[in-house]
């Protein structure tokens, strides 16, 4: 059975992606950490869309758990023809004060699980010459990020990784998109302690960001920055020294820096 796998599915961007794929008749395999929220989302979607929905609870900061997702898909005989690596989190913390275990978990969720899923599900996509992968990056991946150093670094990794793999598979019908939004409405702000930066910008809706990513993926694009203002934000640093870019990045992340 063909199925669309979405990580971080129960809120924000993941939930909006689930709605879009279900509306187009795609069966879903939803992955998230909260089993109750997964059940609630499944019930909500089944009321609206005539598709099959499966759920798998997993903490993607743990290697054994993200590998268990793949094992489950194999056991069920699923062909994951759409993969949305949406799970991720940030942490607005001075490096000298950070909880190092939290930073390592961030790298696992934002990078390691993303690489793993991209690699293991790619085999069937290439075999069937069919598939779309969306890796959720961020405009943070284009610049350094004082006070959010690990997060910016993970998103730079996602961007570079995605551009590289999409080039390698360019002669196939399998497409990989790196979606790079700026601030949008989600639980990310509270989790990352990012309220100061959020207050300085007008966030996009998660629904709009998901639609931009979904449409870009269907068109086979490799990278898309969501929103005109964010495109300017990404383009402007090309004209300034990296030290100055870091200075302005720090000013948006921490009040009084």
Descriptive notes:
- The protein is of the alpha/beta class and 257 residues long.
- The protein has a single domain (2-253), classed as NAD(P)-binding Rossmann-like Domain (Rossmann fold), CATH 3.40.50.
- The protein is 51% helix and 15% strand.
- It has 10 helices and 7 strands.
- It has helices at residues 12-23, 35-48, 63-76, 100-128, 149-168, 188-192, 195-199, 206-218, 228-235, 242-253; strands spanning 2-7, 28-32, 53-57, 79-85, 131-136, 174-180, 223-225.
- It has a 7-stranded parallel β-sheet with strand order 3-2-1-4-5-6-7, with helices on both faces.
- Strand 1 (2-7), helix 1 (12-23) and strand 2 form a beta-alpha-beta unit.
- Helix 1 (12-23) packs across helix 8 (206-218).
- The longest helix is centred in the middle third of the chain and has 29 residues, at 100-128.
- It starts with a strand and ends with a helix.
- The model has no long low-confidence stretch (mean pLDDT 88).
Task: Produce a short descriptive summary.
The protein contains ten helices and seven strands.
């Amino acid at each position: 059975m063909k199925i669309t796998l979405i990580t971080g599915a129960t809120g924000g961007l993941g939930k909006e992606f689930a709605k879009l794929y279900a509306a187009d008749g795609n069966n879903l395999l939803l992955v998230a950490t909260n089993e109750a929220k997964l059940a609630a989302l499944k019930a909500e979607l089944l009321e609206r869309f005539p598709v099959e929905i499966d759920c798998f609870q997993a903490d993607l900061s743990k290697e054994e758990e993200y590998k268990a997702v793949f094992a489950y898909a194999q056991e069920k005989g699923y062909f994951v023809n759409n993969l949305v690596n949406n799970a991720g989190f940030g942490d607005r913390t001075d490096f000298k004060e950070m909880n190092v275990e939290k930073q390592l978990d961030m790298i696992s969720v934002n990078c390691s699980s993303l690489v793993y899923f991209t690699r293991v599900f790619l085999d069937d996509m290439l075999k069937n010459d069919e598939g779309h992968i969306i890796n959720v990056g961020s405009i943070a991946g284009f610049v350094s990020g004082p006070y959010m150093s690990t997060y910016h670094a993970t998103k730079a990794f996602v961007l570079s990784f995605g551009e590289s793999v999409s080039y390698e598979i360019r002669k196939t019908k399998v497409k990989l998109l790196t979606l790079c939004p700026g601030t949008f409405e989600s639980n990310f702000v509270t989790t990352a302690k990012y309220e100061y930066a959020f207050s300085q910008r007008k966030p996009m809706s998660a629904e709009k960001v998901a639609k931009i990513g979904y449409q870009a993926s269907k068109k086979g694009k490799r990278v898309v920055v969501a929103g005109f203002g964010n495109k300017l934000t990404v383009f402007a640093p090309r004209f300034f020294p990296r030290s100055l870019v870091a200075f302005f990045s720090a000013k948006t992340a921490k009040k009084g820096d």
